[in-house]
Amino acid sequence: GYPRVVYHTLYPHVLKYARWDGESWVIETVDNGGGGAENSMALDSMEQPHVIFGPHVGCFIRACTMASMIA
Fold first, then answer.
1. 15: buried, middle or exposed (CB in 10 Å: 19+, 13-18, 0-12)?
2. Which residues, in sequence order, are CB contacts of 5 under 8 Å at separation 6+?
3. Is the alpha carbon torsion for 8, 30, 39, 46 positive or negative?
4. What is the distance between the alpha carbons of residues 59 and 47, in angstroms, rounded to a whole number?
5. Could you report how far apart the first and last alpha carbons of the chain are, in Å?
6. Which of these, 19, 45, 56, 44, lies nearest to 64 by C-alpha position?
7. Second label for 51, Cα 20 to 30 Å away, from 18, 23, 42, 45?
8. What is the DSSP string of 8-69?
């Protein structure tokens, strides 16, 4: 498969998911509420990404399945 990455931008604080589609990077926002500085991603057996992340400040943990982001 093609590479995928989840990352947090500093200014503004936005969690992004990016995947290479063979020609260019497709970048989508996972969370724009300031969270995501600490994050992790795993692909399931269908290569569907699952992201878990913590907020910028505080101790809540969020998780999401990126159904719309399947390559």
1. buried
2. 17, 18, 19, 41
3. negative
4. 29
5. 9
6. 44
7. 23
8. EETTTTEEEEEEE-SSSEEEEEEE-SS--SEEEEEE-TT--EEEEEE-SSSS--EEEE-GGG
For residues 36 and 12, what is the distance between their CA atoms, to the nearest angstrom?
Answer: 12
- Strands in 62-65's sheet, in edge-to-edge order, are 38-43, 49-54, 62-65
* Structure confidence by residue, pLDDT tens digits, 42-57: 998 988 898 888 865 6
> What pLDDT, on the 0 to 100 scale, is given for residue 70?
44
